[in-house]
Design goal:
The complex is a heterodimer of chains A (66) and B (481). Chain A has 66 residues and is mostly helical. In chain A, 68% of the residues lie in helices and 0% in strands. With 481 residues, chain B is mostly helical. Classes of the chains: A mainly alpha (66), B mainly alpha (481).
Chain lengths: 66, 481
């Protein structure tokens, strides 16, 4: 079982978040609205990855067959 | 028939072949209903995304992004991601521990009462059938506008394919074909949408052109007033929440996972991949008016697929629209037939049925439902507005039972009477409110789903506080915690 999966997903989501901000949002004439909307859809994935990582570390899954 | 039509037919044949091939190992009821709880994470992610996105996403949402700006459409998927993570990392594991075959199974186990289970089964059966008619009508409209097929030919072709491989393969066929569709959607989003930006001369030039011609795309509410924008933001996010946490065809995917961690993993994959798909598809379509303001918003996706990308990629993209409709319908079919056979016919008419008889009955139920959906889809007075209303009716039904589902696994005090009155009172209220909104008796911004969710939650909490949970209910609750 890959116990770092949550961390890897979180890093991937962070990389995508940085990419869309650098390549797109920071170039817009009005940045705030797009930044907030993109954050609303992207940031939960980053946080979710970290929670999943903590759950793996603390063995919070029942009956895991892997 | 043009090149795009030929590719689409090839695609449908491939789809049928994969569905039948995938279903060759379906031998038992557990296989047919829940893949014998053997699905790995990537298949669950694929089937959830494919079932959640329908042709409406590709045609309707891109059209709205073109017409009114992309932000509100993108924002609704924020709640999809959050709700999916809540299900995967927190609530879903309690459902998984109940070892469910169908969603009404949950009501039978958590609220042991024939009336609650019957009400839940009827909600699933009616809402799924109405939802299927709406998606089938959407897909025939899509096939007609994309390939020039007549509505009857489109309906028969699509319905035959879906029926055939749902009968043969059950959940396994549905899940595997859905996962393939997910890959196609992702590729479509990453190629077809960005083609608009490339044609405009890259991101920098696209932003400059948009600043001059369509400045509203930088605003969160687009062309709408902030108040209307806020109400749409609220309603679409609630619809997303209801869909993820209470739509039977999505909820049933919890039970197919090979472990509760695998389901959590699937939801994490979804939370990471869905933003890429949605931003890649919807944000880029917001820039289309800067390239060609003459394109009708509803034709935006087909126009880009036919004009801005190589023909083969465009044809795959257009076939993907059809695939999106098919993958949603197969999931609905699967749930409706499982409910009809297991939760209604077996429970109330023939409780001593063997597993082999139930499997055979489930397959016949797929055919029966296909005939009903065919008849419903041919009704001449069903209009485009009715398609949307049918979708809203289905989600309204889900909002009636959402509190009974979620509080059922989180709150020990939720009682059978609370669940019954919550569903029995809020469902007609939501439907009445929906009709009142459609006929103009209440303002358009008053969302029946939001009101329904508040009412059903309130009734569940109040009635549960006034009644006592049985010892059996408390035992079941303790067993899943």
């Amino acid at each position: 079982m890959n116990k770092n999966l949550g961390l890897q997903c979180s890093i991937f989501a962070t990389a995508f978040y940085i990419l869309i901000n650098v390549l797109l949002v920071f170039r817009l004439p009005e940045k705030l609205d797009t930044f907030l909307i993109f954050s609303w859809v992207t940031v939960p994935g980053i946080i979710g990855g970290l929670i999943f990582y903590r759950m793996d570390k603390n063995g919070l899954w029942r009956g895991n067959d892997e | 028939m043009d090149y795009y039509g030929v590719i689409a037919i090839g695609f449908l044949v491939f789809y049928l072949f994969v569905g039948i091939w995938a279903g060759r190992n379906t031998k038992t009821v557990a296989d047919h209903y829940v893949m014998s709880r053997s699905a790995p994470a990537f298949l669950i992610t694929g089937t959830l995304v494919a079932s959640n996105l329908s042709s409406v996403t590709f045609i309707g949402f891109t059209g709205t992004a073109i017409k009114a700006g992309p932000h509100l459409m993108i924002a609704m998927f924020g709640m999809t991601v959050i709700a999916s993570l809540c299900m995967g990392l927190w609530i879903g594991k309690y459902f998984y521990r109940l070892n469910l075959m169908t969603v009404p199974d949950f009501f039978q186990k958590r609220y042991p009462s024939k009336s609650v289970q019957l009400l839940a089964s009827l909600i699933v059966l009616i809402s799924m059938t109405v939802y299927m008619v709406s998606v089938m009508l959407g897909s025939t409209v899509a096939a007609q506008s994309l390939f020039g097929w007549s509505p009857k030919v489109s309906l028969i072709a699509i319905l035959s394919i879906i029926t055939l491989f749902t009968v043969i393969g059950g959940m396994r066929s549905v899940v595997i074909t859905d996962a393939i569709m997910f890959v196609i959607f992702l590729l479509g989003a990453l190629v077809i949408g960005p083609a608009i930006i490339l044609k405009l001369g890259g991101m920098h030039t696209a932003i400059e052109k948009a600043t001059q011609s369509i400045p509203h795309i930088f605003s969160w509410h687009g062309k709408m007033t902030p108040f209307k924008g806020f109400m749409i933001l609220l309603e679409t996010n609630i619809v997303s929440l209801i869909n993820v946490a209470a739509a039977p065809h999505l909820l049933s995917r919890i039970s197919i996972a090979k472990s509760e961690r695998e389901f959590g993993k699937a939801m994490l994959y979804l939370a990471v991949s869905l933003p890429i798909l949605i931003i890649g598809l919807l944000y880029t379509f917001g820039y289309l008016p800067a390239l060609n303001s003459q394109v009708e918003p509803v034709n935006g996706f087909p126009w880009v697929a036919r004009n801005l990308v190589p023909a083969f990629i465009g044809a795959i993209g257009l076939s993907g629209v059809l695939a999106a409709a098919i993958s949603t319908t197969t999931s609905l079919f699967q749930q409706a037939s499982a409910t009809l056979s297991s939760d209604l016919i077996k429970t109330y008419l023939k409780p001593d049925m063997t597993n082999d008889q139930l499997l055979s009955l489930s397959r016949w139920c797929v055919v029966i439902i296909a005939v009903v959906v065919y008849a419903g889809s041919l009704t001449p007075n069903i209009s485009a507005g009715s398609i949307m209303y049918a979708f809203l009716f289905a989600t309204a039904c889900f909002s009636a039972w959402l509190p009974s589902l979620i509080l059922g696994v989180l709150w020990k005090g939720a009682t059978t009477k609370g669940a019954f009155y919550s569903m029995a009172i809020s469902l007609p209220l939501i439907v009445a409110l929906g009709i009142a909104r459609k006929t103009g008796l209440v303002p358009g911004w008053l969302a029946p789903n939001v009101i329904g969710l508040v009412v059903s939650t309130g009734i569940l909490v109040i009635v549960s506080k006034l009644t006592q949970a049985s010892y059996d209910q408390e035992l079941i609750f303790e067993s899943i915690r």
